[in-house]
Amino acid sequence: MEKAIITPYIQQRPSTKRPYSSLRTILALSLLVVSFRTLDTKSSFAKVPINAPQIIQKCSTLNVIPGPPQDFDSRKESDRYVPGTNPTLIKNATIWTGNVKGLEIILGDLLLDKGMIQAVGEIPVIDANGSWLSPGIVDLHSHLGDQSSPKLSGSADTNSRKGLVQPWLRSLDSLNTHDNAYQLSIAGGVTTAVILPGSANAIGGQAFVIKLRPTKERSSSSMLLEPPFTFNGTGIEEVQPPRWRQLK
Q: How far is it, in rounded angstroms, from Cα 158 to Cα 148?
C-alpha cells in the first residue's frame, strides 16, 4: 500500500513592505536635489561688501612685521617734543648706553635737545658728579593710571566685569592723567609703560604704550608713545610698516 507524502504547511508572514515606500524615497531625493540647487542659487547671488578692497588690504598686512617708520633714525626731533622745552646738558655722568650687549659704559656728557646734539644760548646744566645715567626703564606690564594711586574704589578701572570676552575695551579710555604713581615710577627710573587691562576676563581689552612724563594737554591721548594708525580714524599708511598693537 503506497503512503501519501503530505507537504508540511508553512504559514506565510504578511508582507512588511508598504506600497508607498518607493514613492517616498523618490520624493525625499527630489527635495534634497531642490534644496542643494536653492543653496547654490543663493550663494551665486551673494553680495560683496562695499569696502571689500579695504578689508582685503587690511588682511594682507597681518603677516607684515611691525616696526618704526623708515625715517626713524634720521628724524630731527621727537614726535612728542613740546615746543618751548629747554635743552639740558648733563655733565660728568657714567653713561650706560645699552650697546655691546648692555656692557658699554661711557664717562662723559649728554645733551638733550629735540633729539639733536646742539648747544645754543643758555642751557640748564646738571652736574652728575659721576652718577649713573642710563636709558629709561620700560615697564612691559603695568596698570598705571587705570589702577590709580592712592587706591580708591571710585578710581579702580582695571577690570570690566561685564563679559568674558571684551576686545573692544581700551585701557586708554580709563587712564587717569593725574595719577600720583607716574611721578613715583619716574623716580625709580621708569619712563615708559605698557598699560594693560586687568586679568578678570579671558580677553580684557586693548593695551597702550605711554610715556609717563607730564604733557601740556594733560590728556590720555597726548601720553601715547605711538598711536595706532586707526586711532583717530586714519587708515594704514601703505609706505610704512604697521605699528605694534597689544591685546590682553
A: 9
Residue that has been written with the C-alpha cell 525625499 in this structure:
28
Give the model confidence (pLDDT) of 14-42 as tens digits: 555 555 566 666 666 566 555 555 555 55
Global pTM reads 0.58
Give helix then strand counts, H and E, for the chain. 4, 8
Quick check: 229 and 242 in contact, CB under 8 A? Answer: yes
Distance, CA of 65 to CA of 118 (rounded, Å): 34
Torsion of CA 225, 228, 230, 235, to 10 degrees: 110
Spatial distance between the Cα atoms of 204 and 37, rounded to a whole number of angstroms? 44
Residue 19 phi, psi (nearest 5): -65, -20
Structure-block grid coordinates of residue 70: 623708515
Q: pLDDT at residue 134 above 60?
A: yes
CA distance 186 to 195: 15
Q: With the CA atoms of 83, 124, 219 and 222 taken in that order, what torsion angle do they form, in degrees rounded to the nearest 10?
A: 60
